[in-house]
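Troubleshooting log. The previous structure file for this entry was overwritten by mistake, so regenerating from the original sequence record. Sequence copied from the archived sheet and checked twice against the printout by T.R.
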Amino acid sequence: MTIRRVTSPDVPEPPPERWSNCLVCDGIAYVSGMTATSLGKEALAKLDEYEQGKVIFGKIKGMLEAAGGAMADVVKVTIYVTDIKNNTKVWKARAEFFKGNFPASTLVEVSALATPETLVEIEAIAHIGKGPR
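Regenerated output below.
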């Protein structure tokens, strides 16, 4: 088993020794829960679930490309929202990043995320090993 940490200049890394944004193990990329918090609290407070989702899926895309993969390689996403009533906004953002075979997905409402302005968090698993897409 080989584990490789992946970084991207487009996605800020967490403080050292807390967690990794992306690890690749035997051709499987595990992308940690991403949020739009890198935009700053003031900017984030102005974004709804759709806009936060677009930022987050963009960060996931950047991580996968840095790992040698693409959004077409994603097999599973887990989406956390603070208000399940706004789930269609997240699905709209999701549809802009996936075509054809959509990944298996889970959507869960939680009571809170990283900051009060954070409405959405998304994690992903992708198979970036060799083989047909």
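The mean pLDDT is 91. Archived copy saved in two places this time.
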